[in-house]
Each structure stands twice: as structure tokens, then as C-alpha cells.
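PROTEIN–LIGAND DATA SHEET

This sheet pairs a single protein chain with one bound small molecule, adenosine-5'-triphosphate, given as SMILES. Inputs appear in the order they were entered. The predicted three-dimensional arrangement of chain and ligand is reported afterwards as a C-alpha cell string under its own label.
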Amino acid sequence: MPRPSRFTLLSSFAVALRGLREAVFEQRNVRIQIAAAAVVNLLAAWLKVSATEWLVLWLCIALVLTAELLNTAIETVVDLASPEQHELARKSKDIAAGAVLLVSMISAGIGLTVFIPPLLKLLRSGGAV
Ligand SMILES: Nc1ncnc2c1ncn2[C@@H]1O[C@H](COP(=O)(O)OP(=O)(O)OP(=O)(O)O)[C@@H](O)[C@H]1O
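PREDICTION REPORTED AS:
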């Protein structure tokens, strides 16, 4: 029989927020990605991208941040399970880091595809957005 959870809905929300806060304070890469997301939002607002482009950009931001958080969670569990050097620990961390790299590169490509045409238009028009 499944054990009843000792967490209420509210406390589940609170522990999830605690996890987010710890990731932001303890992981430099998470802070870098939040800064990059802020730049993307400012650029999108300045270039007045379409609603569809906003949705795609937010989806990319969500995917990159989610991948980074999962990578952090995997690293933490690996450090718990294998504080000593181990080939499987290395493999697990490398694959998790690879996932972040993959989604970051695809997102960068999408960002360039969205931003380059309006930036070129801006340059040709002499600065008027
Ligand atoms: N226990 C281990 N056994 C073998 N190799 C390891 C181990 N821990 C880490 N490594 C190797 O070192 C790399 C970096 O691991 P580390 O835990 O320092 O991640 P990190 O550099 O903090 O990652 P991030 O920058 O995403 O936070 C891993 O990708 C892996 O190749």
C-alpha cells in the first residue's frame, strides 16, 4: 500500500522553491543562464518580435533552465552515491552536461534565427525599430 505523503500541496510548493533558490545561489551556470534569459527578453522587447517568436524564445529559455536544474540534481545525486572517482559517475555527469550543451546550442540557433533578420533590418534602416 502506498505511504501517505507527509507533504501538503503548499509544503510541496515550498520545497520546490527552496530547490530553485539553492540552485540559483549555489550554481554559477544557473545564474549565467538567468542573465542570458534576461538579455533575450530585453532584445525581444526592443526588436518587437511576434507573439509566436516570444513563445518559441520562452520555450527555449524554459528548456535550457530545466536541463540545467536536472543536470544539477544529477550531479548532486552522483556526488552522494559516488564521492570517489568512478567511471560510471564520470559517464553520468558527462551525459547530463551533454544534455545541457545540446539544448543550449539548439536554443542559440533558434535565438539567432529570430534576432538576426530584425537586427539586419535595423542596421539597413539606420536605427529605427
Ligand atoms: N565521481 C567522479 N568520478 C569520475 N569523474 C568525475 C566525478 N565527478 C566529476 N567527474 C568528472 O568531472 C566533470 C565535472 O564534474 P563536476 O561535478 O565538477 O561538475 P561541474 O563542473 O560542477 O559541472 P557544472 O559546471 O555543470 O556544475 C564531470 O563531467 C566528470 O567528467
